Each structure stands twice: as C-alpha cells, then as structure tokens.
Amino acid sequence: MKKDLKSIYKSFAVLLGLIAILILPYFVFAQPLETLDKIRTESGFAPVTAENNFAHNAGKITAIIFSIMATIFICLMLYAGYNWMTAAGDSSKVDKAQETIRHAIIGLIVAAGAYAITEFVLKSVLG
Asked: pLDDT digits over 40-72, tens only?
C-alpha cells in the first residue's frame, strides 16, 4: 500500500513537471519587433525591417528547429506510451518504453541546455 502511494506521488510529480515545461514558454515577456523599431526611430536610428534583419531571420530558423525537435519529442513520447500500454505484462517491453521516455527527455534537456549556453555566451560576448 505504501509503495503504491509512493509511485502515485512520483507519477504526479512527473506530470506536474511536464505540465510546467509546457506552460513556462507562455510567461516569456519579449518585446515585439514593432516596439524595438519605435525605440530605434525615436533614438535617431534608421528603422530595421524584418527583411534585412539577420537576427530576425536567425530567430525564425531557430524557432523552426525547436518546433521540429518538439514534434520529435512528442512523437517519441507517444510511441513509448503506446508501447508501454500494449506491453501486456511483458517487462522487457515496459523497460524499453521507459528507456525511450528517458532518452527523449534527456535529449530535450540537452538541446535546451545547449541553446541556453549558446545564448548566454553570445549575449556575454556581443553584449
């Protein structure tokens, strides 16, 4: 009984963690490009358009890459969940599904960490 309760708490904690990962991007308060152009023109600089802005284009490419990675992550999680649910008591299939989930999460963490480190280094070097 106590072990079942512990596993329920662990599952609940994992679920809350995954929900937090999905919700956190909505709390990013970045300035839109129009606001930055307004600040530049008020400061006396020429406005930068989206067509000739390298940072804007690089941001679009990065967003596309992260969208693809998120799609791959979700597909891996669905695949592992399906394998886990259809294991029918076969512990080797369950272990393989759990390993797939672990590897998907580790891959997502490594990719997000690499992005964060790169962003930090570029801001400290260029800023």
From this structure: 666 666 555 656 567 777 777 888 888 888 899
With 0-12 / 13-18 / 19 or more C-beta atoms within 10 angstroms meaning exposed / middle / buried, residue 116 is exposed
**Could you tell me the pTM of the whole model?**
0.53
SS3 101: helix
Full domain range(s) for residue 69: 2-126
State how many domains the chain has: 1
Beta strands (DSSP E) in the chain are: none
